[in-house]
Amino acid sequence: MIINNRKRLFVMVGAIILAVIVALLFINLFQIYWFIGAPYEVKLAIDLLCGLFLAVSIGMLFSSDSRFNGLLFGILFGYVIWHFFPYGCIVPEALGMGFFLGIVLVIFVLLRNRFDILATSAKVFLTIAFAVIVGYLLSSFSTKSATMVPDATVAIGKITAQNAFFYGSGILVATVFFIVLMYSIVGVKGSNVFVFGPRGAGKTFFLLGLWGQMANMARTFPSQVIISSDPEDRKNLRLTDLYAMVNGGRGEWRRTEYYKLSMYEIFSKKFFISPVVWTIVDYAGEYYDKVNERNYQDSIEALSEAFEMPVDELEKRSGTLEFLKEIVDHHLDKLYGTGLARALNISTMFSHLGRSGKVIFLIDGEKLLTREGMADLSREFGDYIQTLMDLEGSAWFKIFGGKKKYALVVTKTDMLVQKHPELHALISKNGDFYSLSDIPDQSPEAELIEDTIFKILEKNLSFKSLVSMMNDISVSFIAVSVDPTAEANIASDGEQAPGQIVPWRFNEVIGFGS
Questions:
Q1: Coiled coil where (predicted)?
Q2: How many CB atoms lie within 10 A of CB 238?
Q3: Reduced to 3 states, what is the DSSP secondary structure of residue 206?
Q4: Please, which residues bridge with residue 478 across strands?
Q5: Which pLDDT value is given to residue 223?
Q6: CB 441 within 8 A of CB 507
Q7: For residues 399 and 381, what is the distance between their CA atoms, to the nearest angstrom?
Q8: Beta-bridge mates of residue 268
Q9: Over 80: is that where the pLDDT of 190 sits?
Q10: What are phi and psi of 487, to 5 degrees?
């Protein structure tokens, strides 16, 4: 389900209405300014930018996050071109060249799934157009005022005031138009998705469920690196071995120890051309609340000193698969007994949180069953809020650049349906359903379960605060299960472990990432 924050909804609706009104004013007023003698160079620049915007609007239609902008820019700039073309105010060569350059940019964006670049480009083009128009109006005002030399001083003042009002109105309309469009532009870096969660939230099983679902769709290319001093770990923590452990029913599942770090990348394609890289770092969950800007900088400095690598280079390479493989091959002996394992975990996670355009926050569904669990969730939501402040605090004031998109994913939904009174009652009302496995994951009943879980979480004030911080782009809320069949197996240490990998609602997760 999509959480449509009301503030964002009102802002977007208001932006559409205001943008259309300002566009009509812009067109009707600016034809006056245009026909009084805009220089050929100004027309050339504006027509080039109009062609660019037409192409960019087409590219924006390929992303659900920027589709609104695509429609808005296509309608507005298409109407500007259609309105002025019959009067000979459009230079076809400039318009065509702009459109061609824009199409080249769109192809680049699609091949890399970097709609944040498209958003940044649109904002840059818009800023250039604004500067050209304002510069033209200021130049025209200055030139016209200088050439008017009436007899009386009073007349001079009157004409100057008229000119100031005339050109000042044009600059005001252009400024409002610029601000509205700049604020409304959205672009998400869709090429990278990062999964983040606390201890016990089910990161490892989430990874297996995601991989299982994507393997069923025949569009997955996994890579992995396991950092551990134990050679057995480097074998047993491979995706294939983890999957075999679950299918073999071996009750030897353990939480990820503090000295281990495993990173998995699952590659897929959107539209068969745009890459999507899903990154899951399986780390000791106790590190998740230490992932912040300050600890990241401390970790980078510690790793830089230990590996004798410049800080700038380390920041670029931190968290990449190639860098972690290099550590396994050449620096593994330096990690243990020195505190560097902690630094490596923190720097790897924070790097991915910063670089990824889409971030999934995992919520341990089992904790919804007890008061103690709900108290733990409150603290975890508070930690997520702090993470968001580190990621987005400065971004709220940025004019250029893309935005991040977030999903809240509840794990262990099968346990919730079995044991939570409100959810179990949903199952009991229908005689055809006895467990989660009886409910198709693309059914109204599945959506009802998801909606009910969201309403349960909404009673938690920390959760409501977390959701309210994610108000710039609609947030996805998804409830998933790795094993929707009967009671999950109980591992020897009391850890809940699935008996098989049968992904439930992971299509929604893939839809979020794609």
A1: none
A2: 16
A3: helix
A4: 409
A5: 83
A6: yes
A7: 28
A8: 276
A9: no
A10: -50, 135
Residue 8 confidence class, pLDDT cut points 50, 70, 90: low
Cβ pair 387, 460 in contact under 8 A = no
Q: Which strands form 221-227's sheet, in the order they lie side by side?
A: 2-3, 475-479, 405-411, 358-364, 192-196, 274-283, 261-270, 221-227
φ and ψ at residue 356, rounded to 5 degrees: -75, 140
pLDDT at 490 over 50: no
The predicted pLDDT at position 396 comes to 46
Residue 494 confidence (pLDDT): 45
Structure tokens at 49: 């930018």
Question: Residue 32: CB partners within 8 Å, gap ≥ 6?
Answer: none
Q: Report helix, strand or coil for 196.
A: strand
Assess contact for 361 and 197: CB atoms under 8 A: yes
Dump pLDDT digits (tens) for 338-363: 678 888 888 888 888 888 888 899 99
Question: CA–CA distance from 390 to each of 173, 193, 315 (Å)?
Answer: 36, 18, 17
Question: Span 362-371, mean pLDDT?
Answer: 90
For residue 272, with 0-12 CB atoms within 10 Å meaning exposed, 13-18 middle and 19 or more buried, which class applies? Answer: exposed
Confidence of residue 457 (pLDDT cuts 50, 70, 90): very high
Residue corresponding to tokens 């179990």: 424
Average pLDDT of the residues of the chain:
79
Q: Which residues contact 289 (CB under 8 A, 6 or more apart)?
A: 198, 380, 383, 386
Asked if residues 191 and 112 have their Cβ atoms less than 8 Å apart, the reply is: yes
When pLDDT is averaged across residues 236-256 and rounded to a whole number, the result is: 71
Backbone phi, psi, residue 455, to 5°: -65, -35
Contacts 24+ apart (CB under 8 A), 22-28: 22/173, 22/176, 22/177, 22/180, 23/76, 23/79, 23/80, 23/177, 25/173, 26/173, 26/174, 26/177, 27/79, 27/80, 27/83
Rg of the Cα atoms in the chain: 28
Cα distance between residue 345 and residue 228, in whole Å: 12
| Beta strands 405-411 and 475-479, pairing class | parallel
Q: CA-CA distances (angstroms) from residue 259 to 11, 315, 358?
A: 46, 22, 27
d(CA 157, CA 142): 14
Q: Is 307 exposed, middle or buried (0-12, 13-18, 19+ CB in 10 A)?
A: middle
Cα dihedral 315, 321, 327, 332, rounded to 10, equals 130
Between 458 and 435, name the one with better pLDDT.
458
N-term to C-term CA, the chain:
15
Backbone angles phi, psi at 270, to 5 degrees: -110, 130
CA distances from 116 to 110, 475, 477 (A): 11, 17, 22
pLDDT of the residue at 271: 67
Regarding beta strands 192-196 and 274-283, do their DSSP bridges make them parallel or antiparallel, or are they unpaired?
parallel
pLDDT one-digit tens code per residue, 154-166: 445 555 677 777 7
Residue 504 in tokens: 């439930």
Torsion over CA of 34, 38, 44 and 48, rounded to 10 degrees? -30
* Annotated domain spans of the chain: 2-184, 192-513
